[in-house]
Amino acid sequence: MRKTAVCFVVCCLLTGALHAGFSGRQDETLFREAKILLFDKKWDRAQEKLEKIIEDYPESRIYSEAVFYLARCLEEQEGREVQALRMYEKYMCLDDRSRSLEEESEVAIIELSYRLYEQKGGRSYLREIENKLRSKNKVIRYWAAFKISKSEDTEAARKAVPVLMNILEEESDDELRDRAKIYLLRIAPRAFREYEEEKYERNTKMLKFRVYKKGKREPDFSLNIPWALADLALAAIPEDIKRELRSEGYDLDKIAAELTRVKGSIIEIKGDKSLFRFWID
Length: 281
Prior knowledge:
Blueprint: H1 2-39, H2 43-56, H3 63-75, H4 81-92, H5 99-120, H6 123-132, H7 138-148, H8 154-157, H9 161-170, H10 174-187, H11 189-203, E1 206-213, E2 221-226, H12 230-236, H13 239-247, H14 252-261, E3 266-270, E4 274-280
Antiparallel strand pairs: 1-2, 1-4, 3-4
């Protein structure tokens, strides 16, 4: 009796192991077949096999990949955009998702959301893209910014401005920077002009000249002009100020030479009536 019971347990264990092995082989076979169909762009037939894996083998080690590729199948079929979007979102919630496929999924979510926004309108799909503007992955942030900047919804489009400005500040890739400039000009031309002016001032040495009347804190005369136009700057100084400087024994050409020679120096001249300051910034 005892021997019979032991044999029964062993048989059950072997049957379970064989079934598990067969199930493992079956889900992998379905997955291989689905990938071949995907390659051949037979989306509906691939979809059937991937749905079977997801339904029948939830514990399979290839379950998460099946979810991703099912999303891809749905994305490629017209009229299935909403299902595809939800399937990509499901993939993003899986703990064992692949990092490489994660980025592809987020890009697909952005693309599908914008496609649905164009088809159906409404802010809900734009919010999907807005959320990606806060992604830790800069590729996703940039993609979301470029896409939402095309929106006719001005309020939503302007939410891309910080990311677009960051591209101009941080990125060296000319193509990325050019795209950011184009979208900024479309949705925030004033912000773009201010950036260009600030950049010009940052990258351009400026000759700064102030004249203070004795006893006053605020300058009586101010001049800021690019150092490259120093001749024009010196010519722009009023004649009465030039006379006062000459009376104190100072030559403007010599002052300019001194400013160039000593980096960061401020030349300060105290006259009988005025205080003069020159520096390059």
